[in-house]
Amino acid sequence: MNLSSWPQCRLLFTVISGLIADSLIGCSGMVKNDRRREAWALDASVVQNEDLFWFVMNKFSSVFGSDVMSAQAVTLYNDPGARCPMNVLDPASIRLAMPSGMNFWSQFVYQLSHELTHYAIRQRNQAGGIGVRWFEETICEAMALWGLRVVCDDWRRSPYFDRPIYQFQMRKYLEDELRDNASGDLTPFHDVSSIDELVELDRLAEGEPGDPLGAMHQRDRRARERVALYDLLMRRRSDIKVLLDYTRHIQPVPSGARDPLFIDFVEWQRNDVAHQDFIRELGGIMELPGLTVDSSEV
Ligand SMILES: [Zn+2]
Fold first, then answer.
1. C-alpha 70 to ligand 1 mean position (Å)
2. Does some domain include residue 54?
3. Can you give the residue range of the structural domain that contains 116?
4. Is the pLDDT confidence value at 297 over 50?
5. How far apart are the CA of 23 and the centre of ligand 1, in A?
6. What's this model's pTM, rounded to 2 decimal places?
7. Same-domain check for residues 16 and 158
């Protein structure tokens, strides 16, 4: 053997052995007869995305656990004409809202990651299904950015490893989201200064039927928090699962509000000393300094 060609041979061997390993366990890395396969049904409208679905699912299983990600049967479908993804109306189905076009795969990963986070939170909900919507939506939006990032970073193992243009588009999609959210004169929800404003922020957090633009506006108000939370999640991957516990630390319903509006971050830290630093940072991002809440208000 010509020694000068050894580095190329070694590289070739690494690529081939990686491909063989992937083919043995499926390019998604999923083990056959996985319980998640029984829980998740893919409708005909998304079945062409099946390999990418399982690739994203594996990323979420690695942080939330396969048990959590298979705890409830659900059907995933796409409605290209829908204004936004949704799973709140029927927990047994998750709707994506992907139009066709150049960013189709990026949209798929982005929307799916958001809804997988709702799904995981619901499986661990300790408050009878009740949540704090403005808080949960921000978590899901940050995890949508996280999903894009981890898929891009592990592209070599993705079902589309041979199509670098998809990776390029997805990374650009992520960078555009981060830039649009981190800069500009968007108003963060730190300016919320009354219970009424917070009730309104919460009411429009996921989007009300007939008011999609209102939901977009409220999402903009959480933009900086979303990027700050994404940064935290990228730094502390092993703590991400702690987010699923948030419903244990919600405060009572303020009079007149449909759902709770607050998280008790101090009590949460006290009850989970092992993740105290992460919860403290989370509270620092999501606090509402413009809103003083005394016990008579809640
Ligand atoms: Zn949502």
1. 19
2. no
3. 102-298
4. no
5. 34
6. 0.81
7. no
